[in-house]
From TrEMBL:
<feature type="region of interest" description="Disordered">
    <location>
        <begin position="147"/>
        <end position="197"/>
    </location>
</feature>
<keyword id="KW-0732">Signal</keyword>
<feature type="signal peptide">
    <location>
        <begin position="1"/>
        <end position="17"/>
    </location>
</feature>
<protein>
    <submittedName>
        <fullName>Uncharacterized protein</fullName>
    </submittedName>
</protein>
<feature type="compositionally biased region" description="Low complexity">
    <location>
        <begin position="169"/>
        <end position="180"/>
    </location>
</feature>
<feature type="compositionally biased region" description="Low complexity">
    <location>
        <begin position="147"/>
        <end position="160"/>
    </location>
</feature>
Length: 197
């Protein structure tokens, strides 16, 4: 099950026009910044699903994302809400990234990955636009299961909703997933000469 929202690139004044020659480049963001953005976004979605009030999720977005009404966001995430998907586990579990934060040709920062168990695997693909020196939500795709959600694509309408692909389980089994990149720092293991502190 997937739900995706992407703000229209035409209405996002802070995103630049795509340039076919420009390749994505690593985003200037540290581990803590990534954790804050991913967790706060998914927890806002979780609270919106639990309360049926999508105003805060809408309001934390970039201007292009805010062109969506709270009611429209409720329609898009109705399936996740009706399935009582609990995303609260993302508050304590570290995500694993399949796509490290990168600046796309259109100026958006994009990252994708999953939470291995929250209580089921939660896949996400997020885009953020720079607004007044802060990264604000521009696009969100969330799903559960063993494969990452399809990335939302810009569209001419304020929202693009991507349904699950047909025969999803078969495609997920045959797809070769991208390697996951853990955000957790390596454990400090003492050497023979060092004493643990």
């Amino acid at each position: 099950m997937f739900a995706a929202v992407m703000a229209a690139t035409a209405s996002a004044s802070h995103a630049q026009a795509p340039s076919p020659a420009a390749a994505p480049k690593p985003a200037p963001i540290d581990r803590n910044g990534v954790l804050i953005l991913v967790r706060s976004t998914l927890l806002a979605l979780d609270q919106a699903n639990k309360t049926g009030n999508y105003t805060v999720l809408r309001d934390i977005g970039a201007p292009g994302f805010q062109s969506n009404t709270a009611a429209r966001l409720g329609e898009i995430f109705a399936k996740l809400r009706s399935d009582n998907l609990d995303l609260s586990g993302v508050a304590v579990i570290d995500p694993q990234l399949n796509l490290l934060p990168q600046i796309e040709a259109n100026g958006l920062m994009r990252m994708a990955g999953f939470f291995p168990s929250a209580p089921t695997q939660v896949n996400f693909d997020l885009s953020f636009a720079p607004v007044n020196g802060q990264w604000r939500l521009f696009g969100i795709s969330v799903g559960v299961g063993s494969s990452a959600p399809a990335a939302p694509e810009p569209s001419s309408s304020p929202i693009a909703q991507r349904p699950p692909p047909p025969n999803h389980a078969k495609q997920a089994a045959s797809a070769k997933p991208a390697p996951a990149i853990r955000l957790t720092p390596p454990a400090n293991k003492p050497t023979d000469n060092q004493q643990p502190k």
